[in-house]
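## Example record

The block below lists the input lines for one assembly entry, exactly as stored, with component labels intact.
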Amino acid sequence: AQKITQTQPGMFVQEKEAVTLDCTYDTSDQSYGLFWYKQPSSGEMIFLIYQGSYDEQNATEGRYSLNFQKARKSANLVISASQLGDSAMYFCAMILNDYKLSFGAGTTVTVRA
Amino acid sequence: DSGVTQTPKHLITATGQRVTLRCSPRSGDLSVYWYQQSLDQGLQFLIQYYNGEERAKGNILERFSAQQFPDLHSELNLSSLELGDSALYFCASSVEGGAYEQYFGPGTRLTVT
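Predicted structure tokens for the full assembly:
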């Protein structure tokens, strides 16, 4: 079965600095998609970024970029120029052709002023 | 605002009862997904519907059932509720199934007492 691992339960980052959130995945499928979601304390799940397994370029969305290293099976999220509003839980997720989205345990990010 | 709506926002009920959670997908989205988020199990995929048909099933208990109606809204029915069913239940929608961005609703927080 596919598995998503986020090894950092919590991180602190200074405002305006960049932070990298680690995510590794395990699948033998060639076709898959990787997602990052943000969950603030209010509880909603906010879609941030998506990377397909066949995409050659790393995905970017504003201050978010996904560092996709296929051979290492990693899909780290980089948040540049952190803001106080970035404080939240961040989830990495993977989807295979069976349409099921599997989530990691999440990483809590706290941005300090 | 993701465009996905869920009602009710909060639900408190007793063990043994039955509840129905409702979800309206974003305009134009054909696929609806249900997820459960609990402290001990994290985020788990329950079930997916695409244009009225069940497409994928995850860790959904037999006491739980779902359907998607012709107007594409979906309902998740939870019966014979147990304390352990207390969780945040999310609905998400996407244009298609599979590797497409899933946009989450605000969730329904279910408390079973």
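The longest strand of chain B covers residues 42-50. Chain B touches chain A at residues 2, 33, 35, 42-45, 48, 55-56, 58, 88, 90, 92, 97-99, 101-107, 109 (CB under 8 Å).
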